[in-house]
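Incident log, structure service

09:12 report received: a user says their structure output differs between two submissions of the same chain.
09:20 pulled the input from the user's history:
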Amino acid sequence: MGRNEPIEHALAIRLPQGLRETSALTDSEFEFCIFTDLNPYDLVRKAERWPAAGWLSGSLANIADIAETLTVSQRLINESLELLEKAVRAASDLMGQATDLDFIGFEHGFGQVLQQRAGTQTTWMAMVIIANALAFHDTISAAFDVPSVSSIRSDPETSSLMGLRSAWRKIMYGINYWPIFHVADQLLDLLNER
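09:34 re-ran on a clean worker, output below:
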């Protein structure tokens, strides 16, 4: 609220006719539907209703779960995915331009770590895994006393690569987020060898 963002979803709820006491709210069944693509500035596209006809029914807890899901902006998710795809392609392109750094060696190494054939798809996957680890790293850094990615990048005394590897090892061994960071650390290790 307070931002000039379009309303993406609306939840319409029909109250049960016999509902008179608030204590009966938790035991009552409600009917509801969802409207999406609510853009008052787009006169061509009409809001979509789900279900197209009739009503869904459920408890107040069901409605709360649906309302929580609707708070996730599909528009922002789509924009984030586009940004991630551009970043992965750019990182992959930079890896491809690093012929003087033995890119074929990188591709081969990525393939070994990811246990698949070396190539463009494998390089993209490697970049996505590293991006995922970077994002998760920043998400947990304050809660677990781990330096943030930006503070690692701005540290003049340590290379970003070495700072990340140190932080990721602390995360793996100290916090035990092994599945996310183990493969990403192996991929960074390949970059460190060059």
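09:41 both user submissions now match this output. Likely a transient worker issue. Closing.
09:42 reviewer note: The chain is about 55% helix and 10% strand. Residues 29 and 59 are 5 Å apart (CA to CA).
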